[in-house]
UniProtKB/TrEMBL annotation:
This is Uncharacterized protein.
């Protein structure tokens, strides 16, 4: 974890713990999203939940890798912050990458491709 913290800082970002300690939750809270996730898991009898991310910029693989690293770190930190660390074991972050169809695509184009 220390190495992860150093990597985050070397990229010009504050550590996740620093953000949590000084600013508290940074996600907008509409109702109780953690309760919604738990309810969906129970209703569908499927412990998996997560996010689908489409990569639409292929200018820099290292920038992309750094983004994915920081995004995953922030997800884990927010789950811990909202007393939902138990959900981290069933979280799946799926990344779709296809330079030939996604490079430069906007949200509407991605939506059309994956209806």
């Amino acid at each position: 974890m220390l190495q992860d913290s150093r990597r985050t800082q070397s990229l010009g970002f504050r550590s996740v713990q620093d953000i949590i300690d000084t600013e508290g939750p940074s996600l907008p809270i509409l109702g109780r999203p953690i309760d919604t996730i738990r309810s969906c898991i129970q209703d569908h009898m499927n412990p998996k939940w997560g996010l689908l991310i489409y990569r639409c910029d292929y200018d820099s693989d290292s920038d992309w890798e750094n983004f994915v690293f920081i995004f995953k770190e922030m997800m884990q930190a927010h789950l811990a912050l909202f007393a939902a660390a138990d959900l981290s074991t069933t979280l799946e972050i799926t990344i779709k990458e296809d330079r030939s169809t996604l490079d430069g695509a906007n949200a509407d184009q991605v939506r059309q491709l994956f209806k």
